[in-house]
């Protein structure tokens, strides 16, 4: 089945993925591509509508990112410009934009002007919106009308005849309460979308696709991590070809406390996967001896995983495909807007396996965001214990232990982490945080326990709120709760006498410490 498609051209906004998620929430499939996507490719994709994202550039900059000059004539579908996208459209079509005297950032009150408007149909005259811009449109292109303002700033423009629209604010963020309704008007009323992107349809189509590419006899191997992505990918492939998929769940000795045993039981008893559990803890500890640099840790773990996985996969025979839980954000991040980008950290998906084992990839989730994966998982009846599990880094606790890795340090951190997660669940706070964990710091400090002076380790607790991990804010956990957790950790974990709480957001910090 060919789904209706909305195309998002990315000009570098931090909110671009959020636009896509908002479109998908309305049951419409969309894709993000760089702003310089070839016109021929746009025509081939045959989108129902195009959204031009915001971005950090100024349209007055000499090297500002722009679409091809023929874009507006060739597109022939409704176009919505958001922030920079609106300014670019205005300038490209003969209007004007210039730096604002006062940069608008944060909440603002939009006033809808009288007269016909497609974007604001059935919406109040005044709306709260979220602004983030340094330029503003000063002159309208021919055929456009001004449909909304904030103060004396042009906030929305429309050319209903050519179906071109622009908004200076960000309808995709939660700080614009009626943003979903504005996008709905564009997607359904203006573009004519029907909303045919549902979890059930995705599952049925993906199962048929997997059966077609694997064939009737070939076997498939899948590496399970215990997390949501790999589990949903494995369950989807299992629906398609059953036990011709062999899942390999490797214990690298760096998982959460008891996670290997408990998750392996879930895989076998609840999901009925054909799974092999491999305890390779000692092998991973050996390659991590005296390794301190975070990137070297990741590479050592990745290389050892390839060796262990390859060894187990070779025992199966007849394997032609490798299943990976690659998500859409991973795909987007591999496409640079303007050229090469800086590697912040090596991605957890191990890229060396297909080449080493001469396998082809099956990535059934590569079109999905994390929240969509969870909805697919719920449709597949994957236990909530896995679906609600917080994200966990591929290298595991190795990047939550600052400094070298030893079994004793791993054991200590597992016990601390277990207490933190237990209390979050006990107090009903686990589902309110997107990710929470403990970090073992290479710091010892003086303390007093009973009548004795101690000189022991420090742990940091980290809890964040987020929608997709691209940006994150530290969770405002109650002080009484933190006091209780700290007391339990220092009382029940020998070797720790100090607990601190991380109040850093992303950016400027990353979620993980390494």
SSE layout and pairing:
Elements (H helix, E strand, L loop, with lengths): L4 E6 L5 H10 L3 E6 L4 H7 L3 E4 L18 H5 L3 E4 L1 H9 L3 E17 L13 E14 L5 E6 L2 E7 L4 E4 L11 H12 L8 H16 L4 E6 L3 H14 L3 E7 L7 H11 L5 E5 L1 H7 L6 H20 L5 E5 L4 H6 L18 H6 L2 E3 L7 H10 L4 H4 L19 H20 L8 E15 L2 E14 L7 E2 L4 H14 L3 E6 L13
Parallel strand pairs: 1-2, 1-3, 3-4, 4-9, 10-11, 10-13, 11-12, 13-14, 16-18
Antiparallel strand pairs: 5-6, 5-7, 7-8, 8-9, 15-16, 16-17
How would you describe the overall organization of this protein?
By secondary structure, the chain is an alpha/beta fold. The protein has three domains: 186 residues, Class I glutamine amidotransferase (GATase) domain (Rossmann fold, 3-Layer(aba) Sandwich); 189 residues, Rossmann fold; 102 residues, GMP Synthetase, Chain A, domain 3 (2-Layer Sandwich), CATH 3.30.300. 33% of the residues lie in helices and 25% in strands. The protein is built from 16 helices and 18 strands. It has a nine-stranded mixed sheet, sandwiched between helices. α7 crosses α13. It starts with a strand and ends in a 13-residue tail after the last strand.
């Amino acid at each position: 089945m060919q789904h209706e498609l909305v195309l998002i051209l990315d000009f570098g906004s931090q909110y671009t993925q959020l636009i896509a998620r908002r479109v998908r929430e309305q049951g419409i499939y969309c894709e993000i591509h760089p702003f310089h996507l070839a016109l021929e490719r746009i025509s081939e994709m045959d989108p129902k509508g195009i959204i031009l994202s915001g971005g950090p550039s100024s349209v007055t900059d000499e090297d500002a990112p722009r679409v091809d000059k023929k874009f507006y004539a060739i597109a022939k579908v409704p176009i919505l410009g958001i922030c920079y996208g609106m300014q670019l459209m205005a300038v490209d079509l003969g209007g004007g934009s210039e730096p604002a005297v006062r940069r608008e950032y944060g909440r603002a009150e939009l006033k809808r002007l009288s007269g016909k408007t497609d974007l604001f149909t059935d919406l109040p005259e005044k709306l709260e919106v979220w602004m983030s811009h340094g330029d503003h449109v000063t002159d309208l292109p021919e055929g456009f009308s001004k449909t909304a303002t904030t103060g004396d700033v042009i906030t929305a423009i429309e050319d209903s005849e050519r179906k071109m629209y622009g908004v200076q604010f960000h309808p995709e963020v939660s700080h614009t309460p009626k943003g979903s309704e504005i996008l709905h008007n564009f997607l359904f009323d203006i573009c004519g979308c029907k909303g045919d992107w549902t979890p059930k349809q995705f599952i049925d189509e993906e199962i048929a696709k997997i059966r077609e590419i694997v064939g009737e006899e070939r076997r498939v191997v899948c590496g399970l991590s215990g997390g949501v992505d790999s589990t949903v990918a494995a369950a989807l492939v299992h629906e398609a070809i059953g036990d011709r998929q062999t899942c390999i769940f490797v214990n690298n000795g760096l998982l959460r406390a008891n996670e290997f045993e408990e998750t392996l039981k879930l895989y076998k008893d609840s999901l009925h996967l054909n799974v092999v559990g491999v305890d390779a803890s000692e092998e991973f500890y050996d390659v991590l001896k005296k390794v301190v640099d975070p990137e070297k840790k990741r590479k050592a773990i990745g290389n050892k995983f390839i060796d262990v996985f390859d060894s187990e996969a070779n025992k199966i025979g007849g394997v032609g495909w490798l299943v990976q839980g690659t998500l859409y954000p991973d795909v987007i991040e591999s496409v640079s807007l303007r050229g090469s980008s800086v590697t912040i950290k090596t991605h957890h998906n191990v890229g060396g396996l297909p080449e080493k084992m001469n396998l082809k990839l099956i990535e059934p989730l590569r079109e999905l965001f994390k929240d969509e994966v969870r909805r697919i998982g719920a449709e597949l009846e994957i236990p909530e214990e896995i679906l609600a599990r917080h994200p966990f880094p591929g290298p595991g606790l190795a990047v939550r232990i600052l400094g070298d890795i030893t079994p004793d340090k791993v054991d200590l951190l597992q016990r601390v982490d277990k207490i933190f997660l237990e209390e979050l669940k006990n107090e009903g706070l686990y589902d309110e945080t997107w990710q929470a964990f403990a970090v073992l710091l290479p710091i010892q400090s003086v303390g007093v326990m009973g009548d004795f002076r101690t000189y022991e380790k420090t742990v940091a607790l980290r809890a964040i709120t987020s929608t997709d991990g691209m940006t994150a804010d530290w969770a405002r956990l109650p002080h009484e709760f933190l006091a209780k957790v700290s007391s339990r950790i220092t009382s029940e974990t020998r070797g720790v006498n100090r607990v601190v709480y991380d109040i850093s957001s992303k950016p400027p910090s990353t979620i993980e410490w390494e």
